[in-house]
């Protein structure tokens, strides 16, 4: 593989976050980001990262972020993560030179909302485009996950996506299960916490196998995966909902019983879960899932969205309600940040 554009190539990509119905939790090989179990997600639309990359002949990599106003230099772990991924991409593509990168998120970062999934997907796609390369989706998906955010492999694709268990290079990328237009599902997100989570997903993956319930979850997963694939194929929310909620609870059960334990939930998480159960008692088809954080994603069909959003917004512990839904995946020619 070698770069196909002259230095000076510039690209802006908007990549959405995704919400997993079956979670990636635990790795066969954390360094190579190979998951212990297959995961299945829905790619969102509005919760997204927008990244502009300019490829330059010389100079140092520059990383900028926009958090509302002007671009500012990125700092700390975030800047280090971007630089590491630029090195990964340089090695993989054989490109020399440096990159000027600017990025922004449309949603609270690092609060269990897969900001790294959308961020690494957008960065990967923007770098590859700035280099003038035209790579197959499989390769882009595989590249996106190589700096540690496994879920980034899924954000390169739109609609409903599966990322298989991590054995062998050919399985190291995600693949589409169904396009977005197959089934209009919504994700109403109850934001109860916007600060960074206390324990990274990476540490969570590392500790997962120390839970005495880890093996039980793995034993349950083949049936659960089959149920989710079938529910997506048949657009059957009554089948998908209970399975995705049960799966989210299991992730947190594993986290809470890991050694040392990890508690991602806040009191407001429990409050939202109770309200979702109440909505169901009232006949609204809505089911909850949480990633490695306190925020709750409530999956429903368009007919239930208004009721879900209104009720969640009225809860005292909910600071914001974001309305999102399944989408077609990354936009490759988004509005540049510089
Ligand atoms: C709970 O290692 O991909 O969201 O980089 O923090 O997004 P981030 O984590 P990653 O693990 C994802 C963990 C999860 C479940 C999932 O999205 O599959």
Please, could you describe this protein's structure?
By secondary structure, this protein is of the alpha+beta class. It has helices spanning 76-93, 115-130, 137-144, 152-155, 201-208, 214-233, 237-256, 267-281, 302-313, and strands spanning 10-22, 27-29, 34-35, 39-56, 62-66, 71-73, 98-105, 160-163, 175-178, 186-191, 286-289, 296-300, 320-325. The chain contains 9 helices and 13 strands. Ligand DP6 is lined by residues 20, 23-25, 39, 114, 116-117, 149-151, 201-202, 291-292.
- Give the topology string: H per helix, E per strand: EEEEEEHEHHHEEEHHHHEEHE
Span between termini: 28 Å
Beta-strand percent range: 15-25%
Structural class by secondary-structure content: alpha+beta
Mean pLDDT: 94
Morphology call: globular
Number of DSSP helices?
9
Percent helix, as a range, is 25-40%
Weakly predicted, low-confidence segments: none
Small molecules (ligands, ions, cofactors) in the structure: ligand DP6
| Total E-strand runs | 13
**Which value, in Å, is the CA radius of gyration?**
19 Å
- Largest beta-sheet characterization: 7 strands, mixed
Write a compact overview of the structure shown:
The protein has about 350 residues and is of the alpha+beta class. It contains 9 helices and 13 strands. The strands form 3 sheets. Strands 1, 4, 5, 6, 7, 8 and 9 form a 7-stranded mixed sheet that branches.
